[in-house]
Amino acid sequence: MSSQKAWAVVAGVGPGTGASVARRFAKQYSVALLARNPSNYEPLVKEIESAGGKAVGISTDCADGKSVKSAFEQLKKEMGGAPLAAAIYNVGGRFIRKPFLELNEEEFESGWEANGYVSLHLQAGCCLMKSSADKLFRRGGFHFSQAVLPLLLEALKGSPEHPPTLIFTSATAAMKGSALCSSFATGKFAMRALAQSLAREFGPKGVHVSHAIIDGVIDIERTKHYQFDHPDAKIKPEAIADSYWYLHTQPRTCFTNELDIRPYIEKW
Amino acid sequence: MSSQKAWAVVAGVGPGTGASVARRFAKQYSVALLARNPSNYEPLVKEIESAGGKAVGISTDCADGKSVKSAFEQLKKEMGGAPLAAAIYNVGGRFIRKPFLELNEEEFESGWEANGYVSLHLQAGCCLMKSSADKLFRRGGFHFSQAVLPLLLEALKGSPEHPPTLIFTSATAAMKGSALCSSFATGKFAMRALAQSLAREFGPKGVHVSHAIIDGVIDIERTKHYQFDHPDAKIKPEAIADSYWYLHTQPRTCFTNELDIRPYIEKW
Amino acid sequence: MSSQKAWAVVAGVGPGTGASVARRFAKQYSVALLARNPSNYEPLVKEIESAGGKAVGISTDCADGKSVKSAFEQLKKEMGGAPLAAAIYNVGGRFIRKPFLELNEEEFESGWEANGYVSLHLQAGCCLMKSSADKLFRRGGFHFSQAVLPLLLEALKGSPEHPPTLIFTSATAAMKGSALCSSFATGKFAMRALAQSLAREFGPKGVHVSHAIIDGVIDIERTKHYQFDHPDAKIKPEAIADSYWYLHTQPRTCFTNELDIRPYIEKW
Amino acid sequence: MSSQKAWAVVAGVGPGTGASVARRFAKQYSVALLARNPSNYEPLVKEIESAGGKAVGISTDCADGKSVKSAFEQLKKEMGGAPLAAAIYNVGGRFIRKPFLELNEEEFESGWEANGYVSLHLQAGCCLMKSSADKLFRRGGFHFSQAVLPLLLEALKGSPEHPPTLIFTSATAAMKGSALCSSFATGKFAMRALAQSLAREFGPKGVHVSHAIIDGVIDIERTKHYQFDHPDAKIKPEAIADSYWYLHTQPRTCFTNELDIRPYIEKW
């Protein structure tokens, strides 16, 4: 076992899943929180430090290879030789529905930065994101994976308590394309392909790669006004964090490479 | 919360997954162990009782509706009004490969009871079982589900700590048919259909139904002679038991309905 | 090429897909029509003979191995050494929805023979059939496959114009279980497993095995009262027959093992 | 029915599938052939014209929105108001295997233009393409779809003989990620997502969108040296062309949205 406290890195730390995952992993590890906007990780860094944990926030645009490279240079200094125990890619975005023929190339490749768009329940089918789905899921997943896999492989040398772990937060759109949702689905399908390919390449080396299909509305401030007939109709981000922690603790004799998560009342 | 210690029932208790699952759930619940042959559960009942747990064994042929009915009448007496917290359907069998056209109806419908057959790694493709795949998986799954679901629904009234849970032990053959493996695949596909249908019918009522795809050789006495180039190449049944326990503890806001489990070196 | 006119056999000949498939294959082959009730094939035999084709009807219960054996003994006499070019398993049934816990064993294993049941659109979720789904799909598929595969293999010796072909008519329920539909889904999942296993075992020998997922309401007399907002909302059975004929004509360098078929307006 | 001869457009015309598809559709339609390099379509244009058909070649880089726009401006002039009956997206590439951590961003995003790379059978797992998989499949598919869908919708007004059709040539890598093949799989998964999303958005309007999973080695000059133990082990591109033509002729009451195609001896 390594003599230094190991680290976990979470990319995509906002008010929901990312923050809950960071809190959960901070119980055992030092955590690095990546987000484009420091306002997304600063309160969380303070909260984790106040609770006696160790956290650093690094402003990072995962879709930009240089930004990721520079973030991990900074992170490696912070880590000072301690191992990386887990990496969670949880970068998401906000969406609007739009017919395919109304999408322009800039929207498809770069996302939509205008104000006043309407955020809709993912299940309703969405096609346009503030940042493009391809940037967020495929390209960001590529850069993040390239940055963390050498560290996760390196961690194996220290006989870690749990197998080094890389988890991708995904969605039902990774399994099924929908009308008005082409951009989101292409990004999520591509992320699933990446997760499967990496699981098959790095699993036999001892790194646990998982693809988590989150199917339902996350219970956060922004979704407070979504009304359902049943209680517990939204997924608690703390429960997702527990499931990621469970995945991380699976021994290499028993790796789960894909699981779905949905509220009991969700149709699927 | 119920004032009485709750129960878990495990069907298919042999030397591998079933026994490990029973030991794991016996840490918190009284456990009922079902198997056709008492020699399969007797040592385990003793072991659990010696460790301070409570266990009863009931000889049951899950493929036979009357046998299941009588087993649950006995079990309900044992339970004395305590709730059923979890039910695991883990009935399996032993296989041989056989070309489709050499299968006769009796083998397809009843299985093969002769001596001296060769047991092979499931992944090699297998078509014939000591008891038929249909009896074990489809019909047994039907009778067991009909017996446990009313008890799991009843348990909801007592505000249980964890949602009442029904887990099916399955295999890769539930996802993909193989040459020389028609009987095994039809049984496992049917079991997956049953698990999905029940998850969609009983999930919204609060019962958690899961289908666990176990992909690899289980590490038990019978597979001791299987040699692999890598360590930890066989699935530890204790790790499967931990995953089932994790599934059981998921809150209803976060149900996993299907997950895969395989050793890190497994090709898939 | 064989000097004698080849045969096609269609199991499950009613007013819909089966009859259309028989008519299509009768343009090139002599056809054998199997159904339990002679009233299902008699008018069709007459119709095909009047049009200059050759057809025989044989009363057969595909779920009963003896009945299938006896039907094929009769058929072989009719064929008089001519080859079997194609076999289509199209046995279906009529359904009602029923909660899982209201199903009894007899209904699950034998089907429901009472009068006055309500037939519903398959997509609405159905669980109970006049004859059990297991009998119709898994067991019937087994007996039919065992009867036709030796004939299809035999036909290879005559250098047939098209690869000998076995097609299973299936449904969306082969891919997805539904609430209140457990019996139907278990049967269809099992049929898909059988089709995949046989494709993998008999494909390399030159026999083309296909699984056709028919997703939608068939346009027949019995569904005349189903109203849709759009024209062409029901699948024309003649179009299914054309697709089966296309599958049959694929060369062995280009086998399709699974395809879906649905009307343009169908949600999926 | 339109009074003018309708058109089909094929993107990705090389020595294999694209050329065969163009020849097949040229029997009934005027055809437009798109490829980056005119040497890929010039001989085919001559061949089709000599055979009495009508063909035009347009140099196009489908990954470049401007190039696609300009190609379709030219094409619309050629068409002179005649309808577009079918569009086939068949753009592919050549690959090498490479471990994930040896991929650099330029290779991942732009492909590899160096000389002397080794082309390998797709099934062996490949990760790097002369042009990036994302450019070829996701981005190229986007631009091509945006260009052809308005024309296919427009064609509906002329009551075409067959529903206007958009077909994507895909691969097994659209269903399953592989070690050393992350870039290819992400591109193909994304293309499948696009095809599904468009099928669900444009199907109900009457446009038939299909995703064809081609699983095996295509029988072309470049694969002549691949040796197999069995005859007909490679897919004949003419047979793929026939299957695409069959898809095109399906009426809207019977759309196939996905099918697989593989040689009889292919393992899958």
From TrEMBL, chains A, B, C, D:
InterPro entries: NAD(P)-bd_dom_sf, SDR_fam. It holds the Pfam family adh_short. It comes from the Eukaryota. This is 7-alpha-hydroxysteroid dehydrogenase.
